[in-house]
Design a protein that fits this description.
Shape: rod-shaped
Order of helices and strands: EHHEEHHH
Number of helices: 5
Structural class: mainly alpha
Strand content: 5-15%
Oligomer: single chain
Number of strands: 3
Largest sheet: 3 strands, antiparallel
Radius of gyration: 41 Å
Strand order of the largest sheet: 1-3-2
């Protein structure tokens, strides 16, 4: 018969590590210590104590499926949370745009023209001053 480690015995029997150690301490479950100082169980001994054993492959496949299902559920939850965060962020952006519009002074086209004219006059005077200084031989910017 095959020998199994504690980890394998846990999978085959469906029992936890503490249960296996408790059975060993009480003498209900026999084992052999290998050259590597690990405890090993015969399949027949595990069957005697715990009855029908599970297939390691079947249990591992089931665990992988459960893990995958859990990961999928988690991803679905994260996507939903991201959707909610996106909606909240969009709502905040809309709110901030409304605030910005409310506090930004509105300028009529006539006022814009006046501002542009004033800027043009300022630039005109600035360049006139530079030209005058150049004529006088003093160049500063």
């Amino acid at each position: 018969m095959a020998k199994h480690t504690i980890q394998q015995a846990m999978v085959l029997t469906g029992r936890g590590r503490k249960t296996l150690y408790r059975y060993m301490e009480k003498g209900k479950l026999s084992y052999r210590v290998g050259e590597d100082n690990r405890r090993y169980f015969e399949s027949s001994e595990l069957q005697r104590v715990f009855g029908q054993l599970h297939s390691i492959d079947t249990l591992e496949a089931s665990r992988r499926k459960n893990k995958t299902d859990t990961q999928i559920d988690l991803l679905v939850m994260l996507v939903e949370e991201l959707k909610q965060l996106t909606e909240m962020t969009q709502s905040q952006i809309t709110h901030l745009e409304a605030i910005q519009k409310a506090v930004t002074p509105s300028v009529s086209p006539a006022q814009e023209a006046q501002i542009e004219d004033k800027q043009a006059d300022t630039e005109k005077h600035h360049y006139s001053d530079i030209i005058q200084r150049m004529k006088e031989g003093v160049v500063t910017s």
